[in-house]
Amino acid sequence: MAILPIIWAPDPRLKVISEPVPAVDDAVLKLMDDMLETMYAEPGIGLSAIQIGIAKRIVVVDVAREGEDPQPIRLVNPVITGESDDLAIFDEGCLSLPEFFSEIERPAEVEVTYTDENGAEQTLRADDILSRCLQHEIDHLDGILFVDHLSAVRRGMILRKLSKLKKSKERESA
Ligand code: NI
Asked: What is the pLDDT of residue 174?
C-alpha cells in the first residue's frame, strides 16, 4: 500500500468529472487500498480518487469512531438513488481544503447504489455522518467541492486563503 499526495483546492483537477470504472480489477483494488491508507494517515473519513489525481468514479469512506474497529467501505461507480426530504446541517471539511469548515445543508438520509470490491452491486441506506460523507464524496466525482454549496463570496474568501496556504507550503518544501 502507499500513501499518496492529496490535491489541494484551488486546482483544476478537482473540477473534473470522473469517468465510470468498467470493471473492478486488481488495479482498482490496489487503488482503493492506497486511498484508504492515504485517508487514514491524514486522518479523514472519506476520499475520492480525483483527490489524488485519478479521474475515476471511486470513493472510500470509514466513519468508525475512535476506539471502534475500522469500517472501510469501498464504492465503485456510486450513485445516489434516493434521498430524504428531511435536511440536516453538518459542519463539513475536506482533505482538499485543509483547515476550512462550513455548515452545509443537505438531505439527512440517502440511498446509494454502487459496485463493491467483489464486483457485486450493493445498495446502502445511510443516515447521520455516513450519509453526509457519501454525499460529499460523490460530489467530488462530479467536480463539486463543499464550498460550491456556499455563496460565491464565502467560496471566494476560502479559496483565496487556500491559495496563500498552498504557496506558503510550496515555499516551505522548496
Ligand atoms: Ni472532500
From this structure: 74
Q: Is the dihedral of CA 156, 157, 160, 166 positive or negative?
A: negative
Give, rounded to a whole angstrom, the gap between the first and last alpha carbons of the chain.
Answer: 27
Q: How many Å apart are CA 98 and CA 114, to the nearest integer?
A: 28
Q: Is residue 3 included in any domain, yes or no?
A: no
Active site residues: 137
Closest CA to 61 of 149, 131, 144, 147: 131
Neighbour count for residue 152 (Cβ, 10 Å): 9
- Find the 49 Cα to ligand 1 centroid distance in Å: 10
Distance 116 CA to ligand 1 centre (A): 21
> pTM for the whole thing?
0.96
Distance 25 CA to ligand 1 centre (A): 25
Domain containing residue 49: CATH number: 3.90.45.10
